[in-house]
Structure formats: structure tokens, C-alpha cells
Amino acid sequence: MTPHLANMDEILRLAPVIPVLVIEDLAHAVPLGRALVAGGLPVLEITLRTPAALACIERMAGEIEGAVVGAGTALTPAHRQAVADIGARFAVSPGLIEGQGPDGPIPLLPGIATATELMAGLAAGFTRFKLFPANVVGGIDALKAFASPFPQARFCPTGGISAGNAADYLALPNVVCVGGSWVAPVDAVRAGDWGRITALAREAAALLR
Fold first, then answer.
1. Average pLDDT, the chain
2. CA distances from 109 to 10, 134, 189 (A)
3. Are strands 178-180 and 154-155 parallel, antiparallel or unpaired?
4. DSSP character string of 81-115
5. Signed CA dihedral, 33, 36, 40, 43: sign only
6. Is the pLDDT assigned to residue 1 strictly greater than 60?
7. CB of 155 closer than 8 Å to CB of 176
8. In contact, 96 and 111? CB cutoff 8 Å
9. For the chain, which domains are there?
10. Distance (Å, rounded) from C-alpha 97 to C-alpha 125?
11. Strand partners, 70
């Protein structure tokens, strides 16, 4: 079984890429997760954007050896608690959740887009953040600008990250990993082409940080 991970930093350091998954069909959840883990990407973010999401998280957390399953698009404290109750190991939010800090039922990775939001997150006790949407809010240039005034902050940029630019993000000293959906193309998931997904995961897992 996957060892217990105490904080968000430990989770983010398991692999250079966290697959961001929007799963429509519960039947795809476990084989998709197993394909990604087989390729070397054990940290899986299942977004709460589909009716099947909660059931997918529960199944994947319970059935995929070596996976660290988390929930994305957590918008409220209730979301964080609900996904913890069904086996999620972490939660990711597109922004700061009012009243939420690092302490809670499971680690939380809050999203920020501006220096003001980053300062609010630091004040709440966070040091690990999702830059979101990275491609819209300045991407690599924004992360470079944040590095000097906020040396304690580390990031998992998400939004517009691809096989073509992931290495550029990972080269930044304040980037721990990146989040992206390119490792699980919709057509490959619908076709059940798990071999293709494992190959994409293997390429992503080999990216240097």
C-alpha cells in the first residue's frame, strides 16, 4: 500500500506531473488510474466536475495499488471533508477557500493567481500553491516574479500545461511539479487505450525537476 503522506509537499514531490482528470464514466476510473500509475504518475487529481467524480475517487482510492488519489475543484470546506470521507488523500482548489488552512481532514492545495491572493494564502499558513490558470495569469514569467518576494512559496502550475512546455515550468526553482490533462487524452480514455496513456505517463514521469 502507499505510505501515509503527512503534508502537501510530500505529495507534490512524488512525481513531476499530476494528471488532472475529468472522468465521465465510472467504468473508466480504475483502468485509467492503473495506466497512469504504471507509467510512473501515482498522484491522481480527479476533478469534482462530473456526476461520477465522487464514485470514481472512492473506487480509485480503494482499488489502485500505489495511487495517491485526490480531488480537484474542491470549492468549500464541505467538499474537502466529503472527499476525505471517501478516501481522498488530498484536495485541490482553484482558489483560496475562506476559513481553510493547511490543517484539516486532508492536505489542501489552494489556487492563486495574484500576489494579493498569494499573500492571503501565506497568511493562512499555506506554503504550497496551485498557480491557476497558469497560462492566463502569466505562467513562467509570473512564477519568476513571485520567486524573490515570496521565497517560501512553491507551486504546482496548472492550466495550459502541455508536453511541450512542462519542462520549462519544471526548470523553475519554485515549481515542485505541474498539473495537466495531456497524459490522459479524452479520445484515448473513451477508446480504452490504456497502453497509450501509460506511454504518455512514462514520458511525463521522466521529466526532470
1. 96
2. 12, 15, 26
3. unpaired
4. HHHHHTT-SEEE-SSPPTT--S-SSS-EE-EE-SH
5. negative
6. no
7. yes
8. yes
9. 8-203 (3.20.20.70)
10. 13
11. 45, 90
Amino acid, single-letter form, for residue 19: P
Take residue 57 and report the three cell numbers written for it: 475517487
- Only one residue has cell 508536453, namely 163
- At 150 the three-state DSSP class reads coil
Distances (CA, A) of 60 to 77, 100, 124, 145: 22, 26, 31, 38
Cell numbers that stand for 143 in this block:
512564477
pLDDT at 208: 83
Question: Could you read off the pLDDT of 56-101 as tens digits, one per residue?
Answer: 999 999 999 999 999 999 999 999 999 999 999 999 999 999 999 9
E-only strand ranges, the chain: 17-21, 43-47, 68-72, 90-92, 108-109, 111-112, 128-131, 154-155, 178-180
Cα gap 162→66, rounded to integer Å: 25
Write out the catalytic residue numbers.
45, 130
Q: Which helix (H) or strand (E) element contains residue 58?
A: helix 53-63
- How far is the C-alpha of 203 from the C-alpha of 97, rounded, in Å? 34
